[in-house]
Backbone:
C-alpha cells in the first residue's frame, strides 16, 4: 500500500488532488483500489487541513487517518516545519528545503494561469510515484475537473513532472533524502 | 452512468436511490448527508430522475411529507443525520406504526451538546425502539447496494416497514473509493415498481393513521413486531436475489470474520469494521486467534447470530460509537442479553475521533488480559475504578 | 367516492388486524349519534349544492347521497353541533330536536 498525506490550506485544492490521485490509480485497471478523504469537518478558506490517499493492489479496509505516510505533500510551504518521520516529504517552495524534495508549484500554477498549486503538486508527486503512468494521472485529473479547466491543469501536471524528472534520479525512501 | 467509478459514499448512495426510481423525495439538507440531497435534487432538476422532490423547511416536515406520499402508495425516500433525525423523532414511530415502507438514509453523526458535526452513531442508536429497520454499511459499495435492497425489503408484503440505512458520517459519506455502479436495467430487474393495496382509493375508503385504544393497541404492536422479525427471512431472500443479478453476495444480519475458532472477538458495526479485520489479520499472523463480528442490522436484532458466533470464545468486546449515559453503549447492552461469553464495551470514535489500528490491538490485548467493563478509547481513566 | 359506514364487527382475531394503520373505514370505531340533542335535516328543494356544509362539518358526516343526488348527513357520527345549519346561506338545513323525531 502507498499512503499519501496531503497538507494544505482550505481552498488550495488538497482534497481535490487527493481524489485525483486515487482516480488516477484506479483508472489503471480492475485490480487497483484507492481511498481518498479529507480531514473531516467544516472547511474554512485558509485554515490548515489535511487530506489522505491510500493506493493498493488489494481492497483497502482501514478507513482511518494515515499515521506513517509514504509521501507527505505540502501544498503550502508555510505549513512545513520538519520532514515527516516516515517516507519522502515534498514541499511547495521556491527554495531548497533540508530533508525534503521541493518544487515551486506557485510559479508553475502562475505560468498556467491557475489560482491553486494542487495540480502542479500532483504532477510533482506523480514523478516520484512509479505506480502511476502519466496517462493515468491525466485520466484522474480529467475525472474530477470540468472540461473548461482541464487543459491548463494537465499542462501544470506535466510541467511539474518534467521539472522533477529533469533533476535526475528521484527518491522513493526517506533515507535517499535525509542523511 | 454505470461501471467502475471513484465516488464518495454519499455519491454512491444517491446513485443507488436514483436506480430505485422513487416517486417522491422530501428531504432537508444537513452535514454530512447534504451531498445525497444535492445529487438527488440535481437529478430531479435535469430530468434524469422522474421524481417529485419536495423541498421542506425542516426534518419534521421531511418525514411527514414522506409519510403522506407513502400513504398515497408511492415509493418514497428521505435522508437526514444527527439533530435532523432527532427533530423528526416524533414522526419515526408514525411511519413504522403506519407500516409505511419509506427508505431513509441517515449519515451517522454526533448529537449535541457539545456541538459537533463529525461522525458517530449516537443518533441512530438512540432510535432503536422507533420501529424502523436499521442497517449499517461498511463501505460505499455496500451503501449503494443497500439503497437498492432497502426498498425491496421495506416494501416486501411480509414486511411493510420503514428502513433506515446508516452510513458513518465522513468515514463513509465523504470518503472516495472504487464503486461498481450497476446497469439501470439490472436494477429494474432486481427492484420492481412498488405496488400496495394500502394506498388511497376513493372507491374503497380507508381510515388512515387512526387511533387504536386499549382494546386494539397491543394487536397492532404485536403484528408490527412480528413483521420486523420476518425481516430476517426477507433479507436472506433479497440478498440471494441480489447476488443472482449483480453477483455480489451479502451475509444477512451479521458478517463473521474468522470467528469460527476465535478466542477473542470484537463485535462492531459500520465503517470501522475493516480496520478491526486488519487488526485481526495482524494478530493471527502472531498466532493469536482473533475474530471480528460485524453487525449489519441492529433491527431486527441479530441475537441468534451473535450468540452462535460468540459461543466458544474466551472473551469478546463490543466497539461502538455511542454511549447510553449511565449504563453502557446500546449495542453492548443488547449483545450482553444474548451471550454468556465474557463481554466488555469500548466506546470509541465519539464526535469523529479517529480510531487507529493501535486502539484495536489494545482492545484485543485487554481481552487476552481479562480486563472488562466499559471503557472510552483515548481516555485512560476508568469509570469503575474512579467511582470506588 | 363511496361513503364509509359503521361496521357492526368490533372484535377481531390477531390475524384479522391490518398490517398497517390503514384499514377499511368503519371498523374500530363506535357511533357518536346518541350524544346529539338536535339533528340536521337538509331540505333538497332549498339546497343550491354549494357544498359549504360538507366543507365545514367538523366530523365529516355530510355526504352526497348517490341515490338521491342530494346532500345527506351520516347520523351515526353527527354530533348535532349545528355548524352546517349556520353556514347554509339558503337556510336549507333545519335543526330538529331529537325528541321530535
Residues:
Amino acid at each position: 500500500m502507498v499512503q499519501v498525506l496531503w497538507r494544505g490550506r482550505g481552498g488550495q485544492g488538497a482534497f481535490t488532488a487527493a481524489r485525483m490521485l486515487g482516480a488516477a490509480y484506479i483508472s489503471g485497471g480492475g485490480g487497483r483500489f484507492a481511498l481518498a478523504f479529507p480531514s473531516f469537518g467544516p472547511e474554512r478558506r485558509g485554515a490548515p487541513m489535511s487530506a489522505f490517499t491510500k493506493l493498493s493492489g488489494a481492497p483497502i479496509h482501514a478507513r482511518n487517518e494515515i499515521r506513517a505516510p509514504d509521501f507527505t505533500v505540502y501544498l503550502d510551504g508555510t505549513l512545513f516545519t520538519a520532514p515527516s518521520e516516515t517516507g519522502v516529504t515534498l514541499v511547495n517552495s521556491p527554495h531548497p528545503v533540508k530533508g525534503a524534495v521541493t518544487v515551486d508549484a506557485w510559479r508553475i500554477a502562475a505560468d498556467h494561469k491557475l489560482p491553486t498549486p494542487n495540480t502542479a503538486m500532483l504532477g510533482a508527486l506523480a514523478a516520484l510515484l512509479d505506480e502511476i503512468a502519466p496517462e493515468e494521472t491525466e485520466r484522474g485529473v480529467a475525472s474530477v475537473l470540468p472540461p473548461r479547466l482541464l487543459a491548463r491543469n494537465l499542462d501544470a501536471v506535466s510541467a511539474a513532472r518534467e521539472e522533477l524528472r529533469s533533476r535526475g534520479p528521484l527518491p522513493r525512501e526517506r533515507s535517499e533524502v535525509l542523511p | 452512468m454505470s461501471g467502475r467509478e471513484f465516488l464518495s459514499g454519499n455519491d454512491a448512495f444517491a446513485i443507488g436511490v436514483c436506480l430505485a426510481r422513487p416517486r417522491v423525495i422530501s428531504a432537508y439538507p444537513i452535514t454530512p448527508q447534504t451531498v445525497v440531497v444535492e445529487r438527488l435534487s440535481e437529478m430531479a432538476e435535469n430530468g434524469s430522475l422522474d421524481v417529485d422532490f419536495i423541498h421542506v423547511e425542516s426534518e419534521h416536515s421531511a418525514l411527514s411529507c414522506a409519510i403522506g406520499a407513502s400513504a398515497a402508495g408511492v415509493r418514497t425516500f428521505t435522508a437526514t443525520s444527527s439533530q435532523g433525525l432527532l427533530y423528526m423523532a416524533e414522526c419515526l414511530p408514525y411511519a413504522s406504526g403506519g407500516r409505511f415502507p419509506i427508505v431513509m438514509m441517515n449519515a451517522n453523526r454526533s448529537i449535541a451538546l457539545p456541538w459537533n458535526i463529525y461522525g458517530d452513531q449516537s443518533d441512530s442508536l438512540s432510535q432503536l425502539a422507533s420501529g424502523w429497520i436499521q442497517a449499517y454499511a461498511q463501505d460505499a459499495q455496500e451503501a449503494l447496494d443497500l439503497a437498492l435492497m432497502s426498498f425491496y425489503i421495506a416494501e416486501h408484503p411480509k414486511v411493510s416497514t420503514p428502513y433506515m440505512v446508516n452510513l458513518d458520517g465522513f468515514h463513509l459519506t465523504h470518503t472516495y473509493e472504487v464503486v461498481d455502479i450497476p446497469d439501470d436495467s439490472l436494477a429494474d430487474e432486481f427492484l420492481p415498481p412498488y405496488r400496495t393495496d394500502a394506498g388511497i382509493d376513493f372507491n374503497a375508503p380507508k381510515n388512515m393513521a387512526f387511533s387504536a385504544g386499549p382494546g386494539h393497541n397491543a394487536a397492532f404492536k404485536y403484528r408490527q413486531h412480528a413483521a420486523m422479525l420476518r425481516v430476517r427471512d426477507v433479507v436472506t431472500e433479497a440478498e440471494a436475489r441480489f447476488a443472482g443479478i449483480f453477483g455480489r453476495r451479502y451475509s444477512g444480519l451479521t458478517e463473521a470474520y474468522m470467528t469460527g475458532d476465535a478466542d477473542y472477538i470484537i463485535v462492531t458495526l459500520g465503517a470501522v469494521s475493516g480496520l478491526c479485520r486488519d487488526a485481526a489479520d495482524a494478530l493471527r499472523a502472531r498466532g493469536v486467534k482473533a475474530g471480528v463480528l460485524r453487525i449489519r442490522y441492529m433491527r431486527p436484532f441479530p441475537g441468534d447470530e451473535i450468540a452462535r458466533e460468540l459461543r466458544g470464545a474466551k472473551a469478546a468486546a463490543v466497539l461502538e460509537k455511542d454511549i447510553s449515559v449511565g449504563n453502557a453503549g446500546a449495542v453492548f447492552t443488547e449483545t450482553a442479553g444474548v451471550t454468556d461469553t465474557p463481554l466488555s464495551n469500548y466506546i470509541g470514535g465519539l464526535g469523529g475521533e479517529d480510531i487507529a489500528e493501535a486502539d484495536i490491538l489494545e482492545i484485543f490485548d485487554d481481552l487476552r488480559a481479562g480486563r472488562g467493563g466499559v471503557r472510552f478509547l483515548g481516555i485512560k481513566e476508568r469509570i469503575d475504578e474512579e467511582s470506588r | 367516492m363511496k361513503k364509509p359506514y359503521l361496521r357492526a364487527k368490533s372484535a377481531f382475531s390477531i390475524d384479522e388486524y391490518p398490517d398497517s394503520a390503514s384499514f377499511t373505514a368503519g371498523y374500530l370505531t363506535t357511533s357518536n349519534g346518541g350524544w346529539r340533542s338536535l339533528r340536521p335535516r337538509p331540505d333538497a328543494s332549498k339546497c343550491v349544492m354549494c357544498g359549504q356544509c360538507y366543507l365545514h362539518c367538523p366530523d365529516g358526516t355530510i355526504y352526497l347521497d348517490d341515490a338521491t343526488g342530494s346532500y345527506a348527513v351520516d347520523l351515526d357520527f353527527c354530533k348535532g353541533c349545528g355548524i352546517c345549519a349556520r353556514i347554509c346561506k339558503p337556510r336549507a338545513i333545519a335543526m330538529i330536536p331529537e325528541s321530535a323525531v
